[in-house]
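Illustration: HEAT repeat domain-containing protein.
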Amino acid sequence: MLDVLCDEQSPVEWTVSADVLCRIGEPALLPLAHAAATADSSEVARRVAWALGRLKVDDPGAYEPLLNHAHPLVRSDALFAFQTRGEAAARFIDRLIPLLGDPVPEVGQRAVWAFQAIGTAAVPHLQRVRRLTAPGPRVRAGALEALAAIAGPDGLDSRDQDAWRRLTRIKLLAEIPDGMHLCGSWYAVPATDQDAVLAAFDLGSPQPVTLRTGAAAWNHDHHSWDRAHPHAACSRVFISPALDGWMLVFGDSSQDTHRVEDADDRDEALSLVVRQRCTDLSRRFGSAQWYGMSCGDDWTAWCIAEAGEIVRHYDAYDAAENGDGELAHPAEAGYLLPHQDGFPDDAFDGVSPADSESFAVRYRQVKEDLQIPDTCYANDIAARLSVDPGALGPHVRTSGQGVLALTACGREHGHPAGALPV
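Result:
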């Protein structure tokens, strides 16, 4: 069965042999470990890892000897087996702790995930490690990451929280803005008064953070699928420092998020929430903008308000409301809108989309010959009207400091779990 699993040319689907090995259970453990250590391709290593971590073994202690294996892939696979046991692996905590400092970063990360799966039962053990010097700096750093992964900032004791605040203050002194990964939505208001922005969004308990921390929190929370903590995506918001005179607000407020979740038509409800929020903000600050982008598809959107009136709302997935595609705001001038196709029907005749190189050559040629404009996205409109957070750099004038602030849900449930970089 193992030979079939490792044979990439075998006519037998690999999942069949993997399933048989999983059913064999503990007798297959050491042969699979040897196969993982000697795998001659990433595909074989992936197959073996899948089977090794899912063996039908009653006692996860059978994997314990593999934690000392010389090959990092075997150690990682063993950790995955403990990770899949969740709370049932709690009795192995002391044995798993040294792996937090594994010299191979991927193994150390897998150890963090194993502790995250164990959950709150691991917190006092990890806090004890943080107070000891014997485990070494790598283990202690891994314990800190695991604590944050399990309970967020609330899992850190007062000394670690004070150390985090000191490091943040040090980093803020010399921070240079860097472009953010854009996935989700954000508001932009022309303001430098952070307290006024906090009040406008009903936010509290602001904690100073670097742009790096704030951006990581936004991306972490937006991509959260933690069903055990249903408020992970709506508990906190990142407010940037003033960037060229604009404050950017990243994240979902409790009120807006729950109004949308409770609605029968989510897309329509989101549009109404955005419009109302931009209207209210523009009355307060003179103007306001909302932008949305996705890293998983081509969705993009924006809403622009001036003096209490919506002057433009565009959503690439609701192009029917955009008439025949006429540019409705000066910031869109010179661009195609995302739902528009500027290429003639026969532009790619004879070229297979599967041939990416030929397709790209034809695309560039037709675009240049016909002078087809570039397509604009939310960040392009933001660059013209306020600030493009994806293009931050030393050229951006910065004042004040960013903060992570809690929404109504955050004030009730606390910060979401997860380690964030400083």
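Reading the tokens back as a structure: The chain is about 45% helix and 10% strand.
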